[in-house]
Every structure is written in structure tokens, then in C-alpha cells.
Amino acid sequence: MRPSRVFRWIVRIFLLVFTLSLSAVSFLGGFSAVTILDPDSYNINIPDGPIIVNFNVSDPNNMQIVVPFNISNAGVYELSNISLGFEIWMTYGDKLNANQTTIVQIFDKYVNYGNILPGSTLKTNFNGTGSDGFLIASIPDPNTEIDWTRTPHPLEFYSNFTFVSSYSLNLYTFTVSIINFSLGYYP
Amino acid sequence: MIGRFLNLFKGFIYMGVYITTTMVIPYYTFTWIKEVQILGVNIVLEQQDYERIVFWIGAFGFLICACAFFNYSSPKQSIRKGTFALIQILLNCMYIWSYKFSGATEVRFEIVFAVAGIGFISINVQNMVMLYMGIYFLTIVLKGYDLVDFVVNRDKIRENRYKTVKEEEES
Amino acid sequence: MIFQASDIIQLIADIVAAILNFLKPIVSPMGSWMVSWIEAALKLFPQNELIFYIVLFAVIVITGCIVNIAWPGDKKPKFLAKKEAKKEELVEKVEKAEEKIKKKSEESKKELKKKVKKVKEKKEAVKEDSEKKLEKIEEEIEEKLGEVEEELEEKFDDIEEEIEEKLEEIEDISKEKLKEFTEDMEENNKENDEKQEEIIQDKNDKEKEDSEKE
Question: A39-47: long-range contacts at Cβ-Cβ below 8 A with a sequence spacing of 24 or more?
């Protein structure tokens, strides 16, 4: 066989193996995504139970948010570099600004949960207490800055939630972001 | 005489195949996934991204189909066939980049719930892109090598082709 | 069955993962280079003008039709036609040359035959001449041999006579010399005998003297 033919065959075989592998990964990744995201399978549960919150701005050090969740990896590849992030925004009437409705960020935290192997489940809580997550310095003074007569609620809380993960051998990184999700009001 | 029209016919057939695979199917696929439901929530491809993708599907799709026609209607192992095969591969790279990866490594889908946008899903495919483009690089190398081979050995190729045609005519 | 299927799928996924992880470091740098030139090249392509691409499509297809009808690739390549024409020329030349060679060889054969005939005739003539000459020479030799023989015989006879005479002379001389020698020998013997007697006498005399001394 001529060397040129051998070279051609080597490159073609390499390309074939590689293309098939990529196609397989794409297919298996899609298959995994469908399996994980199947609504009937409940593989992703955020939250997985009642969300515990304490938004008493009078005692910022004891403000708390606990979000239980679980993620089951029903796919064939590892879900890697999983991180969960929460931002909480508070809407209030600013006494110092003619009771204008003001929005301030009071919570910002990202947590990295590592990897979930195929067939495994990550069941844990997303916690934020006091200065661990809460931006205490930006919380307005309840006595002098907050208009407690504001209607319908003096304080309203909204969150942005972000979930980031890589799958299919880190070939895809997806980000799911829910914005302006209502967390309730206080008092 | 028959040979040339047979080649042209082959060119048109392949052009039809490429129109289907590079234009029709991707267009309908993208239109379908433009809005999907996951977990009961609508996920919508951002309009700007969608329009950009559809444009490039059309633009490069036309060029690829034209090159495919020229390529497949040319005689075997001819220099023009090799040239247009190489151009087709290069156009394919740009097509893949601009449509499959929408000219960027991040595709963004809006999450719509009850008419209001409540978030987004974005997929970063940078690593996947690198691998796909690596494959295309190797394919380009192979086609380039073929072209050089056709140029260097063109006399022998034309002689063999003539002999084959003669044998077919005699048989 | 489902359990087995998921096992198989997991196995395939693991194999594919191994292949990709091995090949990724080789292919990724090629890919990033590709992305860089593609992004640069895309800037050259007009955006939001689909008509440009449709026109280009039409131009390429029409050009393809014209080119591939005009040059379908089934005609004899020019270089091959030239090659074959040269080949035919060569064949003709070779045939002509062969004919020439044939003619020449026939002519030369005829000439050769004639020459061979002549040579044969000459050979025979020469043979006859030489045989005749040989005979003559033989006769002459025989004659001369006869003469030489006679001469030699005469000479031998003369020599024989001379030898006999000389032998007789030598015999006479030797007889005389022998005689003289014997006479000399006799004289010598006599002298020796006399000497011997003298010596014996002396000896006896000495012995006598010795005995007398004692």
C-alpha cells in the first residue's frame, strides 16, 4: 500500500471514531437531559419541601433562608461543577426618599456542590444565615428608613435563582436562571 | 455524451440532498425547538438568536448546495472536483459555526410562564465547538491532501479515467 | 431487560468518554484555531443580505452546468493523444527500419553466398597447387636425402679407416711406453730392494751395537 493511502486511511479512521464518539456523546447527553428533565420522574426538585425563611429585618444577624433540594442524576454522564445561587431583593417604601418604592439586594450567595455521579442523588439544603449570604450593610434601618404603612405589604421579597452545571464530559455547560421569583412578604 | 448528463443528474440529486439536510431540516428543527415545554414551562429561543440562525442557514445553505452541485457533477478525481470539495468543507465549517453554535458559544432560551418571561436557560457549548471544529480541521486536511494528490497525479488519473470510459464503451 | 439495556448504555457511555478524553487534548487546539479564522472570515460575508447568496448560488450552479457539459472528462486527454500519436510514429519508424534491415540482410546474404563460393573455389585451387608443390618438394627431398646418404656413407668409411690407423698407432705407442715403464719399474724395484737391504743392515748393526752396549 502506498504511504499516501495509509495516511488517508489513518486520518479517515481517526475522524470516524471521533465523529461517532461525539455523536454518541451528544445523543447520550440529550438522552440524559430528557431523562433528568422528565417531569414525571421528579429528578430535579428545587425546592424539595418547605422553604424556611426569616426576613425579620429588625434582627439582620438572625435572618435566614433554607431551601431544601435534591437532584438525581438519571443520565449516563456525571453532572459536574454544580452550583446554586440565590439573590434576594427587597422592595420597601423609603422614608428618606418620600416613601418611594425602592428595591435593594439583601442576599447574594453562590454555593458549589461538586459533582453528581450517574445514578447518584444530591440531597441537601441551600443555607444562608446572617452575614453568610445576607448583605447586612445594605439592609435599611427598620426604624428610620422603612415605611411600615406601605400597602399591600411593607416589605416584599423576590429572588433570582441560578443553577449551573456541566454535563456530557464537560462539553456542555447549562445555566438555568429564574428571575423575580416571589418569596413572600413581611410582616 | 451520456456521461456528462449523468454527471449533471448526479449533481442535481446531491444538491437536493444538501438542500434537505442543510436548509430544510435545520430550519424546521429550529422552528420546532424555538418553543418547547419542559416541566410545564415554555422555553423560547430569543428572537434575535432565532433570526440570526435562520439567516445563516439560508446563506451558507445556498453556498454549500451550489458547491455540492459543482462537486458532484464534476468528473471523478478531477482538480475542479477536489477544489470545490475543499471549498464546500470550508463553507461547512462556517455554516456549522454560525448555525449550530449560532456564531457564539452560548445559546440562550427564554423561560416563559403565563406570558411573562421569568428567566432563561443558556447552554455554553464552547468545549463541544472546539471538538467539532477540530474534526473539521482534519477533514480539511484530508481534502487538501486529496486535492494535492489530484494535481500531482492528474496525468495518470486522466489516463486511467479515459481507459475506464473506453472499456465501458467497448463492453 | 431494561436493567441490561441501561448497563449497556452506561458501558457505551464510558467507552465513548474514554475515547473523547484521550482525543480531546489533540483536537481542541485545532478547533480553537479554526474558530479564530472562521470568526475573521465571517466578518467578510455580508449579513442580512440573502439575495447576495442566492445570486452566488445561481452563478455557481450555472457555471457548473456549463463547465461540466463542455469538459465532462471522458474525452481523450491531449497529452495522451500526443503520447499515442508519438507512439504510432515510433511504430511506423520501427516498421520502416525493420523493412530496410530485412532488405539489406537479404542482399548481404546473397553477396555472402557468392563470396563463399569464390572462396571455396579458391580454396580448392590452392589445395591442388599445394598438393602438387608438396609432391615436388617431397621428390626433391628424397633425392637430396639419397645424395646426402651416399656422401655420409663415404665419409663414415673414411673416418673408420682413419680411426683404425690411429688405433694401431696408439697401440704401438702404448706398447713402447709400457715397455719403458716396466723397465723403469724394474730399475726402481732394484733400487728399492737395495735400499731395503741397506736399512736392514743398518738396523742389524744398531741392534748389535745396542746389545753390545748392554
Answer: A39/B38, A39/B39, A39/B40, A41/A72, A41/A74, A42/A72, A43/A71, A43/A72, A43/A73, A43/A74, A44/A71, A44/A72, A44/B39, A45/A69, A45/A70, A45/A71, A46/A71, A46/A84, A46/A161, A46/A163
In a domain, C5, yes or no: yes
Examine residue C59 and state whether it is found in any structural domain, yes or no.
yes
| Residue span of the structural domain in which B125 resides | 2-170
Query: Nearest 5 degrees, angle CA A72-CA A78-CA A82?
Result: 70
CB A140 within 8 A of CB A92: yes
Counting residues of chain C whose pLDDT is more than 70, the rounded percentage is 94
- pLDDT-based confidence at C3, cuts 50/70/90? very low
Residue linked to cell 474534526: B135
The Cα–Cα gap between B14 and B16 comes to 5
**CB contact, 8 Å: C21 with chain A?**
yes
Task: Please give the Cα distance from B54 to B59 (Å, whole number).
Answer: 9
Q: How far apart are CA C45 and CA C53, in angstroms?
A: 9
B17, three cell numbers: 440532498
Please give the Cα distance from C147 to B65 (Å, whole number): 126
DSSP character for B100? I
pTM for this predicted structure? 0.57
Amino acid at C91: V
**Contacts with B119 from chain A: Cβ below 8 Å:** 161, 176-179
Q: What is the mean pLDDT of residues A119-130?
A: 88
Measured in angstroms, the CA of C94 and the nearest CA of chain B are apart by: 25
CB C64 within 8 A of CB B4: no
Does the interface predicted TM-score (ipTM) exceed 0.90? no
Tally of domains within chain B: 1
Task: Note whether B125 and B97 are within 8 A (CB).
Answer: no
Domain span at residue C59 reads: 1-75
Distance CA(B66)–CA(B88), nearest Å, equals 9
Q: What phi and psi values does residue B94 have, to the nearest 5 degrees? A: -65, -35
Q: Tell me whether B136 touches chain C (CB under 8 Å).
A: yes
Helix (H) or strand (E) holding A21: helix A3-37
Q: For C127-137, b where at least 16 C-beta lie within 10 A, e where not — what string?
A: eeeeeeeeeee
- B106, amino acid identity: E
Is C109 a member of any domain? no
Query: Does residue B75 contact residue B99 with C-beta atoms inside 8 Å?
Result: no
Mean pLDDT, chain C, whole residue set: 87
Give the three-state DSSP class for C46.
Answer: coil
Mean pLDDT over all residues of chain A? 83
A178: nearest CB among B119, B123, B142: B119
In the three-class reduction of DSSP (H, G, I as helix; E, B as strand; rest coil), residue B103 is classed as coil
Q: Which residues pair with A66 in a beta bridge?
A: A52, A127
Residue C174 lies in a domain: no
